Amino acid sequence: MSSYIDSEIGLEVKYGLPAKVRFCKKCVLSNQRPQPTGEFRFTPESAKLTTGFDEQGVCLACRYAEMKDSAIDWDYREKELIALCDRFRSKDGSYDCIVPGSGGKDSAFTSHILKHKYGMHPLTVTWAPHVYTEIGWKNFQGWIHSGFDNVLVTPNGHIHRLLTRLAFENLLHPFQPFVFGQRFAGLRMAQKFNIPLVFHGESPFEYGSSTIGEAEARGFEKSYFCSEGDLSKTFIGGVSVTDLVRDHGVSLNDLQLYLPFTHSELDKFPLEYHFLGYYLKWDPQEVYYYAVEHTGFEANPERTEGTYSKYASLDDRIDGFHYYTSFIKFGLGRATMDAAQEIRNHKISREEGIALVARYDGEFPNRYFQEVLDYMNISEEYFWQLIDAARSPHLWKKENGEWKLRHSITEEL
Q1: Where are the alpha helices (DSSP H) in 194-283?
Q2: Does 50 lie in the same domain as 17?
C-alpha cells in the first residue's frame, strides 16, 4: 500500500493521495478521487493519479461538462457516429457491434438507440453481478425482452468469492474482481464472435479523468486492455497471478476471464472500442428516462443506501460496499458522486448537492450486510478491523470514540 508522511501536515497519507484536500469550486468532488492509469498491476499503486484541478480550483469533470455545453459541435459528432456505424453495419442483420452492460439505464439506452436509430445489430454481453438484486434481475430480463440477444458470462462462483475476499482484505476493494471481468467480458465475446466494434455508454471523462484528448475521449486505446503477459507482475485482489496459482489452489484457466489480453492477441484481432457518450451528449437523467420508455427499466422502489438516488448501480448486492469502501479510503461516497454529476448536468445547484452529501454520504449499506459477509466468508469483527485499518490519517481522525473526516465539503454550508 503506497503511503508517505507529509512533512507539512505531519500525518501519514495512504494510497499516494495528495496531502492537502481540495474541493471543486463548481461541484462537490475532491482531489482525493483516484484515477486508474491503465496499468495492469491491479494494486493501489496503479491509481496514484488523482482528479485534477485547474488554477481556478475547478475539477476536470466540470471543465468537460462546460465543453459539452458550449465547445462541442454535437451535430458534427453525430455525423461521425453515423459514419462509424456505416463502416461496420451488417447488411444481413448479423451482429455488427457488442454492447457490454447489465441492463441498467446506460446499457439499455446504448443498445436501444444503436439498434433503432442508427440501424445497428448489437449483441449484448453481461458480466454477472456477485449476487443479483431483485430489481437488477428484473431490469436485466426487461432489457433482453425489449429485443436483444444476450450472452450472460457467469464466472466460477468459488473463484469469484475467493478473489472478492482477497480484494477486500488486501485493497479494501470488494468490487475489483467484478470490474476486471466487466472490463474484459465484452471483448472476449467480440473476439469469439469476430465482432470488431464495441460500444460503451458514458465516457470516463464525465467523471474527471485526468486528460481530455480527443483520441482518448472517443474510446479506450488498446493499452487499456493489454499487459506484457508477465503473471508475476499481474495482480488480482492484491495478489500476483503467480501467487494465486501457487498458494490458493487456483489454476491459470480459472483466472482467464479476469486477465488482460496480451498485445499479440489484440494484434491478431483488430478491435475498435468507442464511447457513445463521445458522439451523443450524455445526460444520465435523460438516459434514465429513455430507458424507462423504451426498455421498461425500473428504478429501485427504495432509496439506494449511501445516496439519494434510485436509478443507478442497482443490480449487485455488493454495490453499496464498493461505494462505502471508497468513502473510507478517499472520503468520497456515493452521494458525492451522484451529486457531482447532477450539478454538472444542471439538475441541482451546488448548495443542494452539498446538503445531499451532508445527509447521505458515508451511510452504511446495512440492507445486504450479512449476505456480503457470508459471501466473502468473513466475520463482522474482521470486516470492521479491515475498514478501520484502511483509513488514511490525513483524511480521518477519531473523536470521542467515533471516526470523523478531517475535511468535508459540508463545512461550506
Answers
A1: 214-218, 241-247, 263-268, 276-279
A2: yes
